[in-house]
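Provenance

Sequences were taken from public entries as deposited. Structures were produced by running a predictor on each sequence independently, with no templates supplied. The record for PepSY-associated TM helix domain-containing protein from Streptomyces xiangluensis is shown for reference.
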Amino acid sequence: MTTAPSTETDDSPDPDFPDSPESVTPAPGRSIWSPLRPLVLRLHFYAGVLVAPFLLVAATTGLLYAASFQAEKIVYAQEMTVPVGESKLPISEQVAAAREEHPQGTVAAVRPSPEADASTRVLLSGVPGVDAEHKLAVFVDPYTGEVRGALEQYGSTGALPLRTWIDEFHRDLHLGETGRLYSELAASWLWVIAGGGLVLWFSRRRKQRKVRGTSGRRRTLGLHGTVGVWAAAGFFFLSATGLTWSAYAGSHIDALRTSLNQATPTVSASAGGEHAEHGSASAESGADHGVGLDKVLAAGRAEGLGDPVEIVPPADASSAYVVQQVQRSWPTKQDAVAVNPTNGQVMDVVRFADHPVLAKLSRWGIDAHTGVLFGIVNQIALMGLALCLILLILWGYRMWWQRGRTSAFGRPIPRGAWQQVPPYVLVPLMAAVTVIGYFVPLLGIPLAAFIAVDVVLGEIAYRRGKRTYAR
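Predicted structure for PepSY-associated TM helix domain-containing protein:
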């Protein structure tokens, strides 16, 4: 980055914003990139203008979510932490203490105290007044059996009300399945916008990338491009991992993994069944069914399952207990065993080390996206990426404003760039976009709609004699 003073002004021609037909016409002998660059610029510009509001919401709520992990520890310290005692009570006694104070519902799972100063969580399902997708977590002092409180819990990371509210706001704006479309749209377009920005930035002449010594739109562009380049890898990661568990693209990813035998294996909850996901306890089952929780936990420990673990009671009379590790920070602990409720023998074991490669990558990717893989370092990195994205969006809109002249606001990029792309490049490019659009529908459908509207508007402008490029 140079410190030399700039002689460029806002009125200087800017190769990133062509204003005339000549700017989209490739000079003789130039590379194939010449006709492609205006096309990428137009896509980057319009995608940024139209999708940026969704990205801004996703970035802002993502920033709050990344900070919610530490906030949760402060807000719910009374429930989550206990004074360290001499020895912990058996798990069965801790559950009995929780049930005495909260007899409604069914014991869905138990998470024994993972650390010396941490409480035990007894998770109850079917409790009146609690969301059907949530559990009531009863926090028990493992040394005294004192119930320190009860809070709604959501998800496998054990999110409590504060983090749950922010998580759902980030995921679907509290609008349910319909609201999930916003976050999938943002994830679908983030990598496209970031990739287009990278291509445009590195295709600029080096002297045009400087920030120091510039002013006006050139300075805004320099800040926008520089920060975007440094944060691009993170944006690609957030986009890819966000799509992993999205509604539509996520289903295609799951189908692909299944076809490649890369699905995540789960422990068998029956004596002779193949691996199938084990559900939560039914209303008829008891937490101490058969040999009881203490012997079941001891069987899991004997198989090497260290803290933190979760014990899931049998779903029915023909099912087994499941003891599974729930540590998703590094190193990941996700081993699981099924324990026969009759004799306490281990019936099935699934080791995270034996998971398929794509299953491991998916687990690590999602955990890094949600801020749990590397703890507070992970959360700070996510907050940094979210802040960068917010700044890039604001700078992008500022450039749009600064590009206007007199009473014009944010003049659009001229049409017609695609007509200059050679057919041997345009046809494969369209085929690739079609395939990607099929697997990522919230990229493909808006893009198709944009192209259709753009063509119609261009034809209308042409018929009115206002078309900005030669036919």
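The CA atoms of residues 245 and 251 lie 8 Å apart.
DSSP finds twelve helices and eight strands in the chain.
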